[in-house]
């Protein structure tokens, strides 16, 4: 591989890490509260409100049912509004975040729903309010699942960020298509695949370690 | 003792006059779930410092009842007074400080897996907004009380069932409650652990003067620690009184059936041979308790009435320090006329007698 291509590879790795990390973080910040809202407003939840629950659910399902490549294009005006441009790595972070947030909200919802109802009742019996229940019971008890779900979301984002190459976002997927596939640079293709495997394994390994440390359920 | 207020009668007085003495007073509590009435007019009181046990089969309404006391469940009608204050009209926000006056222990412990033992015990104080130093000091003190100081930094998953319940009790006591609710606290534990947990509750009751209301389906639990018992069936209190008196003279069928496991019963091999009318031996059941059980009942009986008296089954229990006896006697060589003499003699001695039947040969 030529030094120029190597430099390109390094830059692409950074772009992929940036897109994955930034949109992952945004999906965590917005997805976790959304997941909490879904569980809290559901039947028997700590802030039961079925119509809020249905509306939230419908919005999330709506975003989740649109294929990412279509979302990428459809969101161009929104991206332009937020980032100022619809091309490049930062521009790709907008559709990636918007796709990952409802995805992560559903994953967080599953973990939060699994928290034993008896624990919520115990906190209520102690005189705790909703905020106490969220802070002391729901989130800490679901934390292993919340972290494991975040790991899954990050890995999914690594894959999705490759598609963002379609809007000139750069990254490893873009590199693989333009150099590895279209220009028959087999070495680039192999390098990209190896880097992606290492990246995904690394994320998964860190996630698993973190979950093991957080999980005291025995 | 018995302050049973008839079901469904609403108390016109909103503030309880004897509010200092009764920690809990329930008046005509009703709660329906669909077609079934979980509570169908429950009225009872719990006095300061006493242990009241509520017993009933599963589905009798026990859990609904205990959850009404801290507002986890809202009755459809009726009133709940906690320390003289009616809580039925309080909103969730107003109930929160009140719940801090009431500790609760659960059947499945309900400890938070992500917190250490000490953090679990300190949680009610955190909810109260106490400073960290105070929380930790109080938690250490309580862990010592329940004998788990060395487990302070462990996580609940590494504890045995009995240890988990000790943590549950320590947590329930953290905010110095006026009332402790125990929701089948020993039902998930083995008999030996059950005994140690009950001993701990009794100890806390006598040492701290803490009022305890417990629900259970096991008479053994009532026998070990309760001062008073209320029997609930199909959402109604069917019987209520001092534990030893209810043990000695259960009035309702459901109480008798719940007592069945721990009070002497006529052995089936004798019961199956019973015939009405006549036989070589007559089988009597004698129930005697309190003062009446302290005298020389059997030798006096033998001296007063001619005949052969043979003890075939039974025994004397001690409940709350009172003897409670059930004896099954085989009486032979007694004319029917004399049999009446036997029962009269025993009744004069405050014993209850029942002629169960006759058997052909010796049993």
UniProtKB/TrEMBL annotation, chain A:
Subcellular localization, as worded in the UniProt entry: Cell membrane
ABC transmembrane type-1 domain segment(s): 13-205
InterPro entries associated with the record: AA_ABC_Transporter_Permease, MetI-like, MetI-like_sf
GO-annotated biological processes: D-methionine transmembrane transport
Domain of life of the organism encoding this protein: Bacteria
Gene Ontology CC: one annotated term: plasma membrane
Main location: membrane
Keywords: Cell membrane, Membrane, Transmembrane, Transmembrane helix, Transport
Membrane topology: Multi-pass membrane protein
Segments passing through the bilayer: 12-39, 51-76, 82-105, 142-167, 187-207
Family from the record: Belongs to the binding-protein-dependent transport system permease family. CysTW subfamily.
Protein name, UniProt field: DL-methionine transporter subunit membrane component protein of ABC superfamily
Organism: Mesorhizobium plurifarium
TrEMBL record, chain B:
One cellular-component annotation, GO: plasma membrane
Gene3D superfamilies assigned: 3.30.70.260, P-loop containing nucleotide triphosphate hydrolases
Organism: Mesorhizobium plurifarium
SUPFAM superfamilies documented for this protein: ACT-like, P-loop containing nucleoside triphosphate hydrolases
Protein name: Cell division ATP-binding protein FtsE
One of the GO BP terms on file: amino acid transport
Family named by the database record: Belongs to the ABC transporter superfamily.
Occurrences of domain ABC transporter (ranges): 24-259
């Amino acid at each position: 591989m030529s030094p120029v291509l190597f430099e390109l590879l390094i830059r692409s790795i950074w772009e992929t890490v940036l897109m994955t990390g930034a949109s992952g973080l945004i999906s965590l910040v917005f997805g976790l509260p959304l997941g909490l809202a879904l569980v809290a407003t559901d039947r028997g939840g700590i802030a039961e409100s079925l119509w809020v629950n249905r509306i939230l659910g419908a919005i999330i399902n709506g975003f989740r049912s649109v294929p990412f490549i279509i979302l990428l294009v459809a969101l161009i005006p929104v991206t332009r509004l937020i980032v100022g441009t619809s091309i490049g790595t930062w521009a790709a972070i907008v559709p990636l975040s918007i796709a990952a947030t409802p995805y992560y909200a559903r994953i967080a919802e599953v973990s939060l729903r699994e928290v034993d109802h008896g624990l919520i009742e115990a906190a209520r019996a102690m005189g705790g309010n909703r905020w106490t229940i969220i802070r002391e019971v729901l989130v800490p008890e679901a934390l292993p699942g919340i972290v494991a779900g975040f790991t899954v979301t990050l890995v999914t984002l690594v894959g999705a960020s490759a598609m963002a190459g379609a809007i000139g976002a750069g990254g490893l997927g873009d590199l693989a298509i333009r150099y590895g596939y279209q220009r028959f640079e087999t070495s680039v293709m192999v390098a990209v695949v190896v880097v992606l495997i290492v990246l995904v394994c690394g994320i998964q390994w860190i996630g698993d370690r973190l979950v093991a440390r957080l999980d005291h359920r025995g | 003792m018995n302050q049973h207020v008839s079901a469904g009668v609403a108390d016109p007085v909103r503030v309880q006059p004897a509010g200092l003495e009764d920690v809990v007073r329930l008046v005509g509590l009703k709660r329906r779930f669909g077609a079934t009435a979980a509570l169908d007019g429950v009225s009872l009181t719990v006095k300061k410092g006493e242990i009241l046990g509520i017993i009933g089969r599963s589905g009798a309404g026990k859990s609904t009842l205990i959850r009404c006391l801290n507002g986890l469940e809202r009755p459809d009608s009726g009133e709940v007074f906690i320390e003289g204050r009616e809580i039925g009209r309080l909103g969730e926000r107003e109930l929160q400080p009140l719940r801090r006056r009431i500790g609760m222990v659960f059947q499945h412990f309900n400890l938070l897996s992500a917190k250490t033992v000490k953090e679990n015990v300190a949680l009610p104080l955190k909810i109260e907004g106490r400073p960290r130093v105070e929380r930790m000091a109080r938690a250490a003190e309580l862990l010592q009380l329940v004998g788990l100081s060395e487990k302070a930094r462990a996580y609940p998953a590494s504890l045995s069932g009995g240890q988990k319940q000790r943590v549950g009790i320590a947590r329930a006591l953290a905010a110095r409650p006026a009332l402790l609710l125990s929701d089948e606290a020993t039902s998930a534990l083995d008999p030996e652990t059950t005994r140690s947990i009950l001993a701990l509750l009794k100890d806390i009751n006598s040492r701290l003067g803490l009022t305890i209301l417990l629900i259970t389906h096991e008479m053994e639990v009532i026998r070990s620690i309760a001062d008073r018992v209320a029997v609930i069936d199909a959402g109604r209190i069917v019987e209520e009184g001092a534990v030893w008196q209810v043990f000695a003279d259960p009035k309702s069928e459901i109480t008798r059936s719940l007592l069945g496991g721990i009070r002497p019963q006529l052995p089936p091999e004798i019961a199956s041979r019973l015939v009405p009318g006549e036989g070589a031996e007559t089988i009597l059941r004698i129930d005697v308790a309190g003062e009446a059980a302290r005298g020389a009942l059997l030798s006096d009986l033998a001296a007063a009435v001619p005949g052969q008296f043979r003890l075939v089954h039974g025994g004397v229990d001690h409940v709350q320090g009172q003897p409670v006896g059930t004896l099954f006697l085989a009486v032979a060589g007694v004319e029917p006329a004399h049999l009446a003499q036997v029962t009269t003699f025993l009744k004069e001695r405050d014993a209850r007698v029942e002629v169960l039947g006759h058997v052909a040969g010796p049993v």
